[in-house]
Design goal:
By secondary structure, the chain is mainly α. It folds into two domains: 1-85, Endonuclease III, domain 1; 87-121. It is built from four helices and no strands. It has helices spanning 16-38, 41-59, 67-84, 87-119. Helix 1 packs antiparallel against helix 2 and helix 2 (41-59) packs across helix 3. The longest helix has 33 residues, at 87-119. It starts with 15 loop residues before the first helix and ends with a helix.
């Protein structure tokens, strides 16, 4: 499971559906494992549907998205997260991120250490 690429928000016709999808999926990614261990798919889906409705009412108050679009978005996010997220997959993702950060930061630390040692000679 790869990290989704961040979309560049140019402010031009970004899309209300896309905005809602991107916002609610972030919440879902952080909470799906809790629902898997403590609750059910239906509870998770219902919570996402509620969050999508709240998002729509708050950000699109003047021009609400149709309920069917909200329902489809919530269902899509719920099905994907429920199927793709597990404790094992999360551990693999975190391990990859930590490895990447370690390699990236190691060069920075060595460079700073070298500069410091040169400065105190």
């Amino acid at each position: 499971l790869e990290d989704p690429k961040k979309r560049e928000n140019t402010g031009l016709a970004f899309g209300r559906n896309v905005e809602m999808f991107d916002t609610i999926r972030q919440w879902a990614y952080k909470n799906v494992l809790k629902y898997q261990s403590e609750s059910s798919f239906n509870d998770f889906h219902n919570e996402l549907l509620l969050k999508c409705q709240m998002h729509n009412a708050y950000l699109n108050a003047d021009d609400l998205l149709p309920y069917n679009e909200i329902k489809a978005t919530a269902k899509s996010i719920a099905k994907f997260c429920w199927k793709e997220f597990s404790e094992e997959k999360l551990n693999k993702i975190q391990s990859k991120k930590q490895s990447y950060r370690g390699k990236k930061n190691k060069g920075i630390v060595k460079s700073k250490t070298r500069k410091f040692l040169e400065a105190i000679k």
